[in-house]
Amino acid sequence: MPSVYLETYGCQMNVADSELMLGKLAAAGYDHTENPEGADVILVNTCAVRDNAEQRVLGRLGELKGHMKRDTVLGVTGCMAQRLGQRLLDAETRVSLVVGPDAYRSLPELIDGARHGERALATDFDLEEHYEDFQARRFEGVKAWIPVQRGCDYRCTYCIVPYTRGSERSRALADVVRETRDVVSQGLTEVVLLGQTVNSWNDGSGHFGDLLRAVGAVDGIRRVRFTSPHPNDFTDPVIGAMAEVPTVCEHVHLPAQSGSTSMLKRMLRRYTREGYIDCVARLRAAIPGVSITTDIIVGFPGETDAEFEDTLSLAREVGFDDAFTFKFSPREGTPATRLPAELTVPEEVVNSRYTELLQVVRGIARGRNMARLGERREVLVEKEAKRGGQLRQARSRDFRSVMVPAESAEIGDYLTVELTGTTGSTYTGTPVAARAPLPVAR
Ligand code: SAH
Ligand code: SF4
Ligand code: F3S
């Protein structure tokens, strides 16, 4: 059997797409290999969200060439493939396939052609495509990524995603429920529903709250998560469903991007600082103990000291449990690149703001984590800890990462632990009960 090696960059949507691609290729007779050396096909599933994500891939393509046999097919898939298209084929002569996120159905034929010396570009959008008949090949032992929506209809002015993934479309509720049942039958107990603005999901028959209720009620499911929601799509019925469905976890990753209303307006985020804070308040009122994490961009064009201070004060006011911070990266073709050049924030200013923001958000997270020492949590044991064979990595429902002793925790187990120590970002936990009871209705 010919072998395929695949590397994934970018968000969970890309991870889910990689699982779909490997499933499709397995059905077409390809053997998956974890070693690029000597593979018949090498695929790199790419991200275009920031320039450094693309630079990493370009560097990696150079390295992978060193592992290739004379007849190895090298393909680039995903958002960078969609964004660069023919330019990538022209620049990278060893790459023979450039395939965008809506064209994976044709992957086996495209690879066949490439093995016969053809070079192909497949970047058409297909608004009907959800890969319903593909059997995802999953690699996570305990949880399943389930795309419920593809594309994005927001047009945040910094963002390339609407151009690389096309318009928003939702999968049918029945298809999502069917896939959830499938993953339960494979022994997984957690699902993560994926979409760029996942809570705007609407399949024509209902809203995201209906989807949460349907998925959350599948027999055998113990945890339902979703990412990433948009503040404007947290309607009362959606928050109501989150509060009422016991399997929906107490964690919301709610990208803020900025704490300044004028900046949010330039970003076309479609909410104000007050609107964001109100959304958090509604979530906290409905879901006791919900943890809130976020994404923040610094150095968007025109960012003033006062606007940056507003972002710091938002972080303090909300009290984020964790935050991913990014330096603004101009993406070709996005509206932000058409702002006057004099609005560009000087690099040294961006760097010092970035450092300050990181310190602030880490300090806030550390304080919030320290305050929870001594509390108990139900955790799901996910995998071996990166360092040290004696520990396994587990997650609480409120998305805290907890290291537990390996001898008391098999992967896939639910345990109740006491949070006994923290580095500020992760915990150590001591088991207090062998297996936690099923979650009860709040
Ligand atoms: N759909 C998700 C975000 C997807 S991109 C949402 O709207 O929440 C993930 C994160 O990358 C974004 O939340 C944003 O913080 C960051 N990001 C996107 N475009 C960027 C850019 N041009 N420069 C820097 N960060 C960016
Ligand atoms: Fe990008 Fe905005 Fe869409 Fe998120 S909501 S993917 S940040 S355009
Ligand atoms: Fe990157 Fe595409 Fe995801 S640009 S963040 S892989 S949707």
How does this model look, in words?
This protein is α/β, with parallel strands linked by helices. It folds into three domains: 3-122, Rossmann fold; 143-371, tm_1862 like domain (pyruvate-formate lyase- activating enzyme); 376-434, Nucleic acid-binding proteins (OB fold (Dihydrolipoamide Acetyltransferase, E2P), Beta Barrel), CATH 2.40.50.140. Helices cover 33% and strands 23% of the residues. The protein contains 13 helices and 19 strands. It has helices at 12-27, 51-65, 79-84, 86-91, 107-115, 161-165, 173-185, 208-216, 236-244, 261-267, 273-286, 305-318, 347-370; strands at residues 3-8, 31-32, 41-46, 73-78, 95-99, 120-122, 143-147, 149-150, 169-170, 190-194, 223-227, 251-253, 291-298, 322-327, 376-384, 391-396, 401-405, 414-422, 427-433. It has a six-stranded parallel β-sheet, with helices on both faces. Strands 15-16-17-19-18 form a five-stranded mixed barrel. Strands 7-10-11 form a three-stranded parallel β-sheet, sandwiched between helices. Helix 2 (51-65) links the parallel strand 3 (41-46) and strand 4. The longest helix is centred in the last third of the chain and has 24 residues, at 347-370. The mean pLDDT is 96. The site of FE3-S4 cluster has 13 residues, from helix 1 and helix 6.
